[in-house]
Amino acid sequence: MTTLDEAPTGAKRRWGHPTVLALIVALLIVACLASIMFGVRSIGISDAVDALLGKTDTTEQAAAYARIPRTVLGIVIGASLAMSGVAMQAVTRNPLADPGIFGILAGASLAVVTGMTFFGVTNPVTIMVLAVVGSACSAVFVYVVGSLGRGGATPLKLALAGAATSAALTALVSAVLLPRIDVMDSFRHWQIGGISGANWERTGLAAPFLIAGALICLLCARGMNALALGDELATGLGENVLRTRIVSSLGAVIL
């Protein structure tokens, strides 16, 4: 009886994931249509669909077509942040892990504000490179500090090291910005971000970074699953724990 009772439960679990995935995809399609339809000028659903098919014969279709890059960029950004968060949670085995807790955002901010203030950096690609370098340096520092002492890099130690590092770097960012009000507006614009005014050219500037980060995380997916079982068990399964952590973290930092 136990076996017979458990069989339907297993079947439900097997069918649950495709159903949830299909529902999420449907909601994403609805959200995409809403993003194209609504704005300063509302567009009908038929014109929005025609714009997605590449038609720009009418003013409504042209307006809807101009909103497509904004919608695509929003999807890509959301996917990138999700993959980055998952990678960090897998590396640290901490379900609360995110770039803010582990000082990655603060490291990127300090690198960017330093480039803007002292070197006059304004090029978007250069700013992205600075952000990646700053994030990587901060992530390495947090991991090294969190690895000190008995037990190595435990989730609690990493979280504490990340919180302390984030607070220190945020204070440094404020110290650099306070005397330079002229840089503050540019930095705040970069820090807050946004997808308004997006076009294919601007999206293309970020595409190489996002593709590289996504590929790294996808290639490390199996290793990250092994890390969830614990370092010893992952090593017993033949996984190089240190290499997986470093490469996965690199993908998360880039994203």
Summarize the structure.
Helix content is 78%, strand content 0%.
> Could you name the ranges where pLDDT drops below 50 across 5 or more consecutive residues?
1-8
Order of helices and strands: HHHHHHHHHHH
| Beta-strand segment tally | 0
The mean pLDDT is 86
SS element count, helices:
11
Tell me the radius of gyration: 22 Å
Described by the principal axes of the CA atoms, the overall outline is flat
Q: Classify the helix fraction into a percent range.
A: over 70%
What distance lies between the first and last C-alpha atoms, to the nearest angstrom?
50 Å
SS content category: mainly alpha
User: Tell me about the biggest sheet?
Assistant: none
Strand percent estimate? under 5%
General description of the model:
With 255 residues, the protein is mainly α. It has helices at 2-37, 45-52, 59-92, 104-119, 124-147, 155-177, 181-192, 200-219, 221-227, 231-236, 241-254. The longest helix has 36 residues, at 2-37. It is flat, with a radius of gyration of 22 Å. It starts with a helix and ends with a helix.
Chart the SSEs and their pairings.
Elements: H1 2-37, H2 45-52, H3 59-92, H4 104-119, H5 124-147, H6 155-177, H7 181-192, H8 200-219, H9 221-227, H10 231-236, H11 241-254
Helix pairs in contact: 1-3, 2-3, 3-8, 3-11, 4-5, 4-6, 4-7, 5-6, 5-11, 8-11, 9-11
